[in-house]
Amino acid sequence: MIKEELILETINMIRLYNLDIRTVTLAISLRDCISDDVDIVCKKIYNKITQYAKNLVKYANELENDYSIPIINKRIAVTPISIIGESCSNPDYVKIGKTLDRAASDVGVNFVGGFSALVEKGCTKGDKLLIEAIPETLAQTEKLCASVNLASSKAGINMDAVLKMADIIKKTAHLTKDGVGAAKLVCFCNSASDNPFMAGAYCGYGEPECALNVGVSGPGVVRAAIDSMPKNADMGELSNKIKQIAYKITATGELIGRKLAQKLDIPFGVIDLSLAPTPAKGDSVAGIFQAMGLEHAGAHGTTAALAMLNDAVKKGGVMASSHVGGLSGAFIPVSEDSGMIEAAANNYITFDKLEAMTSVCSVGLDMIAIPGDTPVSTIAGIIADEMAIGMINKKTTAVRLIPVAGKTVGDKVVYGGLMGEAPIMAVNGLSSEKFVCRGGRIPAPIHSLNN
Question: What distance, in Å, lies between the first and last C-alpha atoms of the chain?
């Protein structure tokens, strides 16, 4: 029997607590688009994307209406473009990037990810050319997102690439209004090849020809569930409540994902259960910490609260689905979370505290605006620290920094929409230059020898 309270609970999750399908992401392999002529590559890429994705937005909108569950973003992820472009005798990565952007616009999706390179152990010619092309390409496109994997628990940290990407981030930010180009660029350790979230989504080399991956969110639902509990509920009870909610959210997301994959006549890939916040009131991961009993995000105990939240979300998700993948956990982007924005603006949370939190969160240092005159070597040091956390802990970590030209600590930058607004945060003024300029590769940790 269908119980009335379960129906009402689901309705309240959607209408009152911002439950949504954050993204449906169509992953498309472009391996068969390789050619020695870049014009042929671009033609093949455009034709394949428009063929596979022509009905993505239409069918997603139909399901949104059928089930009354908002689907916020429709996206595409493709094979890392460094691989596709390096076959050309006349490689032009800017041209390929513009082709991806045009295809994304023509099929009506919000973003396309995969302007990417995987260089944790070193760079090929194609990797180097793509990385060099990132600033110009992101400045001349609207929907394109880029990512570079710089480290892994198996390979260590490519410090030459870390230093190079620090320079690329700064150039990209300074070529675009308020640095928005850098908001579409992320550096990874242990990147996930089935991640449906931008800016890091791409279709990994081992992924199928095409698949539909879904990202579900619901921090407002989790907060409401905790608020409904007795104030003296212990940590075990809090964890169990979060697991129960994560189970329901995951089941909802997989239902929509499988229905959409069926309509598109492609395989269902993974469900990524990530508590990805928005600037909307009540849709904040930082708000969950307050519901748990912390005065605000940044108080001592925040890292412990995030660790429990992340673990409970994963446990609830894997009980609901055998196809949980992507990143799955809790995101802590500063500009995209109303509570984190408030914490940063009031100096409740510092850069160092954010770095500590990344050791237990789903991703890493995300959507953080910093002064535009921050040295490249300092940005490289920040990236290296975050890569080390991921490498040692065998988890995905990432860095998405926005050096905003003309802005300094105390200022803020407003992007609107899901990107929200970001107070300019202070970085450590001590120099990292001599360290990061040593280059080479920081070796993988001893636990990488586990074959």
Answer: 50
Please tell me the total count of domains within the chain.
1
Nearest to 256 by CA among 310, 217, 283: 217
Query: 48 in helix, strand or coil?
Result: helix
Query: Residue 418 and residue 370: Cα distance in Å, rounded?
Result: 19
Cβ pair 141, 133 in contact under 8 A: no
Task: List the one residue out of 243, 211, 214 whose CA is nearest residue 226.
Answer: 243
pTM: predicted TM-score of the whole model, two decimal places: 0.93
The DSSP string of 164-193 is HHHHHHHHHHHTSGGGGGGGGEEEEES--T
Query: What letter would DSSP give residue 228?
Result: T
Amino acid residing at 373: D
Query: Which CATH number characterizes residue 31's domain?
Result: 3.20.70.20
Q: Is the pLDDT higher at 330 or at 131?
A: 131
Where in the sequence is the domain holding 119, given as residue range(s)?
Answer: 25-189
Q: Which amino acid is at 221?
A: V
Neighbours of 410 (CB within 10 A): 10
Nearest alpha carbon to residue 222 among 238, 245, 239: 245
pLDDT at position 362, please? 82
